Amino acid sequence: KMSTPHSKFFHWKENEIHYTDEGSGQVILMIHGLGGSFYNFQELSNQFIGEFRVIRVDIPGMGLSDFKHVKRDTNFLEEYTNFFQEFVEHLEIKSFHIMGNSLGGMISWITTTVMPDKIESLTLINSAGYDVKKVLVSAAGPIRWKWFSPVVTKGLPRRITNHCLTRPFADKSKVNPAELEFTYWNLNSKGNINTLTSLATSGQNPDEFIIKNIQCPTLIIWGQEDIIIPVAHAYKFSNDIANSEVKIYSPCGHMAMMEFPDRVANDFRNFIKDKIALA
After folding, report:
1. Handedness of CA 220, 223, 224, 226 (dihedral sign)
2. pTM, to two decimals
């Protein structure tokens, strides 16, 4: 359900992990945020097809991907880092640009520190990384509350799933109705709810000190009106990553790639032309 003609699956630890693989050329790997899916990058991906090979991944336990061995004490960041290392190896990708939003941004910069030789550039879109416990309270909302799990076994009402998707947008009119339908299905998937509640209550933090180790060209994109992760965090990343550039959009919330896909695409193109000698 909800897959596309470009959908593929990678077998990982007894799980089927969904991804799409389109186009040809330099590889861009796109990673969505908490409770999101590959669909979050649909419009941005459309901007790049014909120029790049675009791979969008559903993080294990989200979108169309399984995460059967998830437990309350699962080390999510370690699991996700290991997954992306295996995934890149499986696809025999020699080098790639990595791009992530929110939780996907955090996975992206951690991945950059563990396989620096493969990363051409890093693009952080409203990325998690600092004050993660505080950010998680804002991002996860009711998912963290004890009453949430028993209630959602009966299904989340549409108004709650709609709220989960529209809340991060500065301009609610930019929400795609098809995305609302996918979010309703995504958040009502039993396996996904288990992952979300476990992750949201895990209390795990990344080692933010390793952000200073990132050497690759890094583009930092943020929405001025982001209510999930404050725009001040864009400058924290900029201060810690030597080879970086910041772009602030307004009016824009937490989902810059969905609110301004054409602008993100253009800023990315210009950034890698300036920073990287294209073959």
Report:
1. negative
2. 0.91
